Amino acid sequence: MANVITPRSEDYARWYTDVVMQSQMADHSPVKGCMVIRPLGYALWEAMQRDLDARFKETGHQNAYFPLFIPESFLHREAKHVEGFSPETAVVTHAGGSKLEEPLVIRPTSETIIYAMFSKWIRSYRDLPLLYNQWANVVRWEMRTRLFLRTTEFLWQEGHTAHATEAEAEEEALKILEIYRRFAEEQMAIPVYSGIKTESEKFAGALRTYCIEGLMQDGKALQAGTSHNLGQNFSKVFDVKFQTKEGQWAHVWQTSWGVSTRLVGAIVMAHGDDNGLVLPPRLAPVQVVIVPIWKTDSERARISEAARLAAEELKGAFRVTADLREEFSPGWKFNEWELKGVPLRLEIGPRDVEKDQCMAVRRIDRRKTPVPRGALASRVAQLLEEIQADLLEKARAFLRENTRDVKDYESFKRGLDELGGFFRAHWCGSADCEQHIKQETKATIRCIPLNGNREEGKCLRCGARSTAWVYFARAY
Fold first, then answer.
1. Per residue in 396-451, pLDDT tens?
2. Are 438 and 257 contacting, i.e. CB atoms less than 8 angstroms apart?
3. What pTM was computed for the model?
4. What are the start-end ranges of the E strands in 1-78?
5. Would you tell me how many other CB atoms lie within 10 Å of the CB of residue 3?
6. Measured between alpha carbons, how far is 462 from 224 in angstroms, rounded to an integer?
7. Cα-atom radius of gyration of the chain, to the nearest Å?
8. Which of 50, 45, 25 is closest to 35 using CA atoms?
9. CA distance 414 to 314
């Protein structure tokens, strides 16, 4: 099966599409720029949903749902917001056979319609904080699309909160950023840099935007999540006010934050190899596949029964399947399950039955380990945790090796072309320098680290005084 996958070294973009398509995670739809998420891809997204949803609820957030359609006038109330999203919006002008009195925008994000509702629900300081999240689809009319990474319609969660003070809103935005960072590392096995976006890169209408940035195997950065302190920009526009304890009226402070099905693409690009997907055990829809191996009919019934019993023992504790199909050879099954990224394969052949064991094979490196039948569940649990840890350490090593300090602009440009990765460099804070670097190199400031970067230096481009360094990279 790997023969139909373009090698990463030959064409990384083609490799990515081949893996997504051949593993049956997603497919192109009849609507240009949209995708069909197939069961494997959707199961991975569901695993992400379950974990993130639990983390949100643990911190007091509640799920709700708001309409897909937004009155066009709502977007125009916040000038920066409409300016940021106008090129991407899809607008409904006719419905039910007649022209609408007011066009409806298909939601590109929900700040406007949610805050129109907040203005109805919030009256007193006792109503705060209001901590909402919704799981939904959005539409942004993209010109150049790629499965999971950038599509016209995609799935995401978007949190929206209202607070009495700026300090509370800032605490919320940073709390969510940390949730995203921990999820990326603990579940996805992808280490990230976290920090604040520059003014030119922040969310349209936000006071401040925070983000996490991962590094893909081709040396490009991927923005994996954002958390925004919106200040009072939207609350003033939509008149979201509350009566304070002192009896005065004040506008709320708000946040919004989200991650999307882009995270599915991140897992493909961060861990996959030339044989297909490599999925982290904590999120893999199938963690363990059991493949019986026989040569004769007399062996088949005995070994198939051993595989079935092993699967029964593991069910409940693990997401496991026994591949008992007789029309495919063991080798064919090995290739198929490797393509689909299953972290651990258990092989059971005649000798394994005689020794009362299984042979465990790790997807990450194909390393084999005999597992006594009597210790099957405990050993499988141990192996899956080892695989999860090894994936994260491998990704951490890759991030370390591909993060470089740079002080010379020409060296920076050569490094981008020849090596890729993150470049840690000083920046004077000038929007003009930032824009020139972007135009000349196609690299952007991915984030300004929140901690540990207060040091004197000279701007990478202009040589002016700098008090902090930033992370530059080319990005998706």
1. 999 999 999 999 999 999 999 999 999 999 999 999 999 999 999 999 999 999 98
2. no
3. 0.95
4. 26-28, 35-37, 62-63, 69-71
5. 5
6. 30
7. 25
8. 25
9. 52
